[in-house]
Design a protein that fits this description.
The protein is of the alpha+beta class. The protein has nine helices and 13 strands. Strand 5 and strand 6 form a beta hairpin. Helix 6 packs across helix 9. It is globular, with a radius of gyration of 20 Å. 2,5-anhydro-1,6-di-O-phosphono-D-mannitol binds next to strand 3 and helix 7.
Length: 335
């Protein structure tokens, strides 16, 4: 039962029973994410004030080392997740290899791995445009009490137990799913509490927005070019509106609320696309499907891809079901 104006804390407790595994552990994990999100949000909000956007290695006026905001966000999420005795390993866009949580030995029962993009769209920070955090949670597949292994991270998206994102926008929102629909919570910065503002989020049946970096048009495969022309054609309810922030979380969030498609296809310059399967596409695909949308690599379901490497890239088409299916129709002509 979804009640408006619930806090995230209340919501987690009321919905614990829906979680297939130990509900208390997942609740604590989500709790640590909401805490880290508040810390990062605080820093993101004052980015222009304290010049934290400077490069790593620079020193600020107080003589303190400056950190780039994405490095800061990475550290905060890792610190917060590490201290809860639930997570045994973390993989992040910011780290080449996965992190084994120290103390995850025979005395510890930590069962979960978290994969994340701590600050997605970070090229937007300097210009005061929305950025986000993306996270994906799995149960480990290797025995509890042993150090985490690569195979714990290389699980297909359909094995995710939870996924979500935080969008640091005009307001800050945390949106997540545990496989029972998608719920969005807005941060009240005065109180530091997250309120259920967007219960049971669903894509509208028909979308009219397409989001793609059209500057890459000449490098796109023919199927993508044809689909873009279809979006621009004056027919039926088209042309669609073009909206591209260049921040996956923000583009995704808008399209889920208003109806639309986001795509980052392959191109002659990026033969596998740009977005990372494990901590960008899989979590967004899980949320999209839970919101009655669809996520595809242009031909097949994102969540069924068997990952080969931690930082693997895949082409990504995600949004309103009918729009993704139409894009797939165009792609199939040139398969
Ligand atoms: P990042 O993780 O380095 O920020 O890259 C991912 C971002 C997405 O948020 C966004 O949709 C895309 O890259 C934008 O890329 P481009 O500038 O090539 O359009
Ligand atoms: Mg990213």
């Amino acid at each position: 039962m979804v009640k408006k104006n619930q806090t995230l804390g209340e919501f987690i407790i009321e919905n614990q029973s829906e979680f297939a595994y130990s509900s208390g552990e997942l609740s604590r994990l989500i709790n640590s994410i909401r805490l880290a999100a508040k810390v990062v949000n605080h820093e993101v909000n004052k980015a222009g004030l304290v010049d934290i956007t400077g490069a790593v290695g620079e020193t600020n006026v107080q003589g303190e080392d400056q950190q780039k905001l994405d490095v800061y966000a990475n550290e905060k999420f890792i610190q917060t997740l590490t201290n809860r005795e639930i997570v045994c390993g973390i993989a992040s866009e910011e780290n080449d290899d996965f992190i084994t949580i120290e103390g995850c030995n025979k005395d510890h029962k930590n069962k979960y791995v978290v994969l994340m993009d701590p600050l997605d769209g970070s090229s937007n920070i300097d210009v005061n445009v929305s950025v986000g955090t993306i996270f994906s949670i799995y149960r480990r597949v290797t025995p509890v009490g042993t150090p985490v292994q690569l195979e714990d991270f290389l699980q297909p998206g359909n094995k995710q137990v939870a996924a979500g994102y935080i969008v640091y926008g005009t307001s800050t929102m945390l949106v997540y799913t545990t496989g029972h629909g998608v719920n969005g919570f807005t941060l009240n910065p005065a109180l530091g509490s997250w309120y259920l503002s967007h219960p049971d989020m669903k894509y509208p049946e028909n979308g009219h927005i397409y989001s793609v970096n059209e500057g890459n048009y000449v490098h796109f495969p023919q199927g993508v070019k044809d689909y873009i022309k279809y979006c621009q054609e004056e027919k039926d309810d088209r042309p669609y509106t073009s909206r591209y922030i260049g921040s996956l979380v923000s583009d995704f969030h808008r399209n889920m609320i208003k109806g639309g498609i986001y795509f980052y296809p392959t191109s002659s310059k990026a033969p596998n696309g740009k977005l990372r399967l494990l901590y960008e596409c899989n979590p967004m695909a899980f949320i999209a499907e839970q919101a009655s949308g669809k996520a595809s690599d242009g031909f097949s379901r994102i969540l069924d891809i068997e990952p080969q490497e931690l930082h693997q890239r895949v082409p990504f088409f995600c949004g309103s079901r009918s729009m993704v299916e139409k894009a797939e129709e165009f792609m199939a002509k040139y398969k």
